[in-house]
Amino acid sequence: MRRTGTRAVRRGAAALALAAAGLAGAVAWVKADAHLARTRSGWALIRTRRLPDGTRVRVLRQGGVYQSATYLDERRFEPPFAYQRAFDVMFEAEGDMRRARVHGLGNVLAIGGGGYAWPKHTLCAQRDLRMDVVEIDAAVTRIARRWFFVDELERLACGRLRLIEADGRTYLEGAAPGSYDAIVNDTFAGSEPVVALATREAMQAAHACLRAGGLYLANVVSRDEGEDLSFLRDVVATCAEVFAHVWVVPATDEELGGEDNYIVIASDDAYRFEEAIPFDDSFLGNVMRDRA
Q1: What predicted TM-score, i.e. pTM, was given to this entire model?
Q2: What pLDDT is stored for residue 238 in this prediction?
Q3: What is the rounded distance in angstroms from the CA atom of residue 6 to the CA atom of residue 228?
Q4: Cα 26–33–6 angle (5° rounding)?
Q5: Residue 281's Cα: distance from chain center in Å?
Q6: At 25, is the secondary structure helix, strand, or coil?
Q7: Per-residue confidence at 192, pLDDT binned at 50, 70, 90?
Q8: 189 pLDDT tier (thresholds 50, 70, 90)
Q9: Alpha carbon distance 45, 2 (integer Å)
Q10: Are residues 291 and 249 in contact, defined by beta-carbon separation less than 8 angstroms?
Q11: Exposed site from 18, 274, 284, 290, fewest CB < 10 Å?
Q12: What stretch of H or E contains 108?
C-alpha cells in the first residue's frame, strides 16, 4: 500500500505514462479527479470514486489492485477496507495481556504505510497508543500526506506517531529486543506479498522485537477469487514454527476487495479471538525460509 503527490494530468499524457508503466488498461480511470505519482515500484494512480450509496472514497491503485483508500468526509480517519478494520482484533487480547503480563498494547509497529488507513484509525481511537510505521518508499508517504490526511494525523497524534523510511525486514532485524507489544505486517508489492517478511527468519526477527505475550498480525490475501489459500497455509505453518499459538480471522471486503483477506495472528500466549476459524495440522502448508 502506498505513494505521493503529483498534479492532475491530461488524459493524453496519462495514457502515455500508463502505457509506459504497463498499466494502459487503467486509462479510463484518469479524469479530472485523478492523479499519477511515480514510486519506486512504478506508477501509482490516485482517484476519487463513488460507492453505490454515493459515498466518495479516494483510492490508491497500483499493480492492478487497490493499495489503500480513504473516506473524504468526517469518516476520513476510519478505514474503508474490512481487513484494515479487522486489525483491531488485537485489542480483544489486551485484557488478558494486562492480567498475565502487566502491560497492554501501548507500543505498536506497523510495517507498510501505504495510505496509512489503519494507523489513522487506531491512533485516533486509542489515545494512549504509540505507533511506529515503517514504509520503504518515501514517495508513498508523500502521497499519504497529500491525499490521505496523514499530515492532519501527524498534528493530531501529538508525537505518538513516528514515520520511518526503511525496509521492513531490515528494520525488524535491527530493532531492540522487546520493543513492541504488537507488530502489524501489511506489506505488498502491487498484488504480491513481500515474502522476505514472511519467512521463518523474518518471524524470528519479529518474535525478538515483541515483549512477552506480544502479538504478531499479518494481512494475507487469497488467489483465484478465494480458491487458492496456499500462501495463507504457508504463512500459518511458518508462524507456527516460531510462535506457540496461531489464529486465522477472516476479513473479506465484499465491496472494495477482489480477493479474500485473512488476518493471521501469532503469539506465545493463548488468547481468544471471537472470529477465529478453527484449523488442524492438515491445513498447514510449507514453512517458508530464506534462500541459501
Answers
A1: 0.86
A2: 98
A3: 37
A4: 85
A5: 27
A6: helix
A7: confident
A8: low
A9: 10
A10: no
A11: 274
A12: strand 107-111
**Ordered DSSP codes for 33-69:** TEEEEEETTEEEEEEEEE-TTS-EEEEEEETTEEEEE
Go through the chain and tell me how many residues it has.
Answer: 292
Write down the number of H helices and E strands in the chain: 9, 13
Classified as helix, coil or strand, 174 is helix
Structure-model confidence comparison of residues 32 and 261, the more confident one: 261
Using an 8 Å Cβ cutoff, are 110 and 134 in contact? yes
Instruction: Domains for the chain: give ranges and CATH numbers.
Output: 11-71 (no CATH), 82-283 (3.40.50.150)
Give the DSSP letter of residue 3: -
Amino acid at 175: A
Whether the Cβ atoms of residue 1 and residue 41 lie closer than 8 Å to each other? no
- Residue 96: exposed, middle, or buried by beta-carbon count in 10 A (0-12, 13-18, 19+)? middle
Confidence class for position 65, pLDDT limits 50, 70, 90:
confident
Site of grid cell 502489524:
184
pLDDT above 90 for 6: no
Q: What is the mean pLDDT of residues 64-91?
A: 91
Over residues 193-217, mean pLDDT: 96
CA distance 243 to 1: 27
In the predicted structure, residue 25 carries a pLDDT above the cut 50: no
Longest dimension (CA), the chain: 61
* Pairing mode, strands 188-189 and 210-221: unpaired
Q: What SS3 class is residue 245?
A: strand
Determine contact, residues 38/104, Cβ cutoff 8 Å. no
- C-alpha cell of 152? 492532519
